[in-house]
Task: inverse folding
């Protein structure tokens, strides 16, 4: 009980600090960067729900893009209804995950990764080539939320992050969370203790895609313009993957801090070097797998245990 | 009619490049059960080596293939030693993450060193004309090398003692250990050979296509499509699969409106379709 309370206080402090930042540094660049960090934290947390079942998607950008396009299309052809857009973006992304989940059910590990990567790439080519509705490579313009006020947008992104964080905790402690651990370790064991791996894998996939779709819908209203090469970019899938692994996939706090730290490093590198700042994600993936398989969060946990003993 | 034949020939010639890119990937998968996501980046490095040898040293591009093979063999051994050998028994999740990490690392290193620009070798290419059909001489040479190497490799794997050893390891690693085969040594060697093949492929790509940091991703994903179509780890079927992909792309490029754009997405679409209806590919190992 005490530990739980401590955790809640810790989160309140962290998010309060984030809320105060734009007041201290009233600089559009900083606020824009912070909003980007929040969006990536949300994406990484959504990705982690799926990845905990042992299925590594290299195509998270697909659901991000589907969400973006649903929002953009509704905004362009029907009208500006942000709430409906968000819900529909989530539902359509979830439906795609359901279908893709059934297709890839028979496949394990590596084939799932290849399938998700191909899915995102197929959508990218389709979005680039379809000119009548999706606007082809030139994309679609979207109306901004909150009159394009960057501070309100930032607070909204914090709200989104908090909601997804809470959902993450619930799922982590729910039957899906426990089933994920068993499925990840051995599907046969899962079957023998009465866990249906198929059901939970698809469920995790749908939830993950649903949340990613909503973030996509929000993101497109934030940047107000859809560019297929950007939203279906492998860079999104890659960074989300590296952030989750680096932070520590098998905790809720891990993906949060992983995304926070790596996004800052990426931004620093982006300003320093002209091309190839994504090199950090490659390095982090390699080093994490070889030396820190449980992520940076495990280092803190070990330090805590040492202090106690 | 001429257009039709030209389309077939173009497709076939492209398939030679795809094939040579794929066989290294197939070799590693067949023997070590690892899908190397960084394979495409090895191809890219090979393409750059050929480009720089040609531009700086004025070397004949075909001669530089020897350097490609040697350099990429060494790179392959290093990658195996510092990375792959550590995760042989790890869950497939780690294999994806590690090789994918190397892929991103190399791609961005290329971006840092050589920017995002695409370079091509400006070499005078003789054009062979048969009636109204035109074929670049270099494309024919590249095609021939691609198929010859594949056939030689296939023969080595089935006829020689070395090949039989690799087959034994592929079928049952523990049993291979028991009969006294030095499995880690052969793993290292096959990873090195696969990387050298990627280097060779890269050189050929540099000669008939172009060089850019993204060429690895482009070709790597096509290699995956061929791999999946062929049935994973099956070299002979990879020949047929690469011809199918080459021809399909060529026909879509020519006969579909805005064809080249759509052809770009064909390989991904194929992967999805095959994984949906027949994960075991045309023929071959049942996918795990």
Result:
């Amino acid at each position: 009980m005490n530990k739980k309370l401590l955790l809640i206080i810790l989160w309140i402090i962290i998010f309060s600090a984030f809320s105060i930042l734009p007041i201290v540094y009233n600089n559009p660049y900083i606020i824009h960067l912070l909003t980007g960090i929040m969006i990536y934290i949300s994406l990484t947390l959504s990705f982690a729900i799926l990845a905990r079942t042992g299925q590594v998607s290299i195509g998270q950008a697909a659901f991000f893009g589907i969400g973006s396009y649903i929002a953009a299309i509704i905004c362009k052809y029907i009208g500006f209804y942000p709430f409906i857009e968000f819900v529909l973006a989530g539902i359509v992304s979830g439906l795609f995950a359901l279908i893709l989940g059934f297709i890839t059910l028979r496949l394990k590990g590596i084939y799932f990764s290849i399938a998700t990567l191909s899915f995102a790439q197929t959508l990218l080519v389709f979005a680039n080539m379809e000119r009548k509705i999706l606007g082809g490579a030139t994309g679609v313009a979207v109306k901004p939320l909150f009159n394009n006020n960057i501070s309100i947008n930032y607070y909204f992104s914090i709200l989104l992050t908090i909601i997804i964080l809470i959902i993450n905790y619930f799922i982590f402690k729910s039957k899906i969370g426990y089933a994920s651990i068993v499925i990840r370790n051995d599907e046969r064991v899962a079957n023998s203790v009465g866990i249906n791996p198929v059901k939970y894998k698809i469920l995790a996939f749908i939830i993950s895609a649903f949340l990613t779709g909503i973030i996509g819908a929000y993101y497109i209203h934030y940047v107000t313009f859809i560019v297929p090469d950007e939203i279906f970019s492998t860079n999104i899938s890659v960074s989300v993957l590296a952030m989750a692994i680096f932070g520590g996939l098998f905790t809720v706090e891990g993906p949060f801090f992983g995304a926070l730290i790596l996004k800052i490093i990426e931004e620093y590198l982006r300003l320093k070097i002209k091309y190839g700042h994504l090199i950090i994600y490659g390095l982090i993936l390699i080093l994490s797998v070889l030396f820190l398989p449980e992520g940076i969060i495990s280092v803190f946990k070990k330090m805590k245990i040492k202090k106690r003993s | 009619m001429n257009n039709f034949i030209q389309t077939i020939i173009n497709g076939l010639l492209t398939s030679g490049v795809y094939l040579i890119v794929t066989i290294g990937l197939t070799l590693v998968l067949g023997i070590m059960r690892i899908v190397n996501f960084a394979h495409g980046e090895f191809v890219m490095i090979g393409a750059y080596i050929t480009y720089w040898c040609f531009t700086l040293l004025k070397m004949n591009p075909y001669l530089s293939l020897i350097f490609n093979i040697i350099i990429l063999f060494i790179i392959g051994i290093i990658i195996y030693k510092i990375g792959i050998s550590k995760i042989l028994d790890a869950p497939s999740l780690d294999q994806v993450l590690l090789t994918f990490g190397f892929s991103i690392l190399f791609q961005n290193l290329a971006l840092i060193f050589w920017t995002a620009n695409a370079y091509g070798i400006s070499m005078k290419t003789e054009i062979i004309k048969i009636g109204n059909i035109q074929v670049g001489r270099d494309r024919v040479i590249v095609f021939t090398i691609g198929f010859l190497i594949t056939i030689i490799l296939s023969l080595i794997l089935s006829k020689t003692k070395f090949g039989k050893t690799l087959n034994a390891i592929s079928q049952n690693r523990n049993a291979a250990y028991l009969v006294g085969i030095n499995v880690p040594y052969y793993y290292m060697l096959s990873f090195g050979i696969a990387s050298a093949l990627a280097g060779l492929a890269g050189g050929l790509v540099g000669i008939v296509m172009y060089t850019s940091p993204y060429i690895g991703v482009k070709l790597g994903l096509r290699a995956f499509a061929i791999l999946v179509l062929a049935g994973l780890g099956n070299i002979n079927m990879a020949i047929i699969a690469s011809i199918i992909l080459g021809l399909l792309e060529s026909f879509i490029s020519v006969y579909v409106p805005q064809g080249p754009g759509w052809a770009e997405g064909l390989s991904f679409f194929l992967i999805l379709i095959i994984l949906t209806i027949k994960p075991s590919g045309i023929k071959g190992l049942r996918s795990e």
Remarks:
- The mean pLDDT of chain B is 84.
- Chain B has one domain: 2-277.
- Residues 47 and 202 of chain B are 4 Å apart (CA to CA).
